[in-house]
Amino acid sequence: MVHDPALLDALERFDSESWEGVVFRHVLGGTAPDRANVRGTRWNPPEVSALYVSLDRETAKAEGDRILEVQSVRPRVKRFIYELGLRLDRVLDLSEKADLAAVGISEDELGGDSFEACQRVGGAVAWGEHDGLLVPSVRHEGGKNLVVYTANQAVESELEVRAKTEIVE
Known about the structure:
The protein is an alpha+beta fold and 169 residues long. It has one domain. The termini are far apart.
């Protein structure tokens, strides 16, 4: 994939930092909590492996609710929220809308159904060998998500399952 030099320059203005803390992941059925997405979605183009987690339980649930809303037939499987301990080495924080604007993402592109602009940024972040990207949640006001680019995780990175809770509706 060829990346726009202007986008790469814009991303270079942000410092990457290590990140450590508790995150939450919504999963359906027996899906493993560390199973990455390689088909592509908002922040990862196809073939770029990414694990989507949220910084709080409510955001993870809201993200999962949206997954179910867009299904033509609602899956009849149990839903779970996993609490995970996570440590990453090189995370870019674009969780403020001004930061997204600085890399060319408008509010309409952030919340829209086309993922092209966000995938362009996420693909460039992964290409730059960052192992994480902090972004605002589209589904939960004030929530934040962390996109983990699993192919870029350092050996010292950590992902530990701490708890599993079934969502009962």
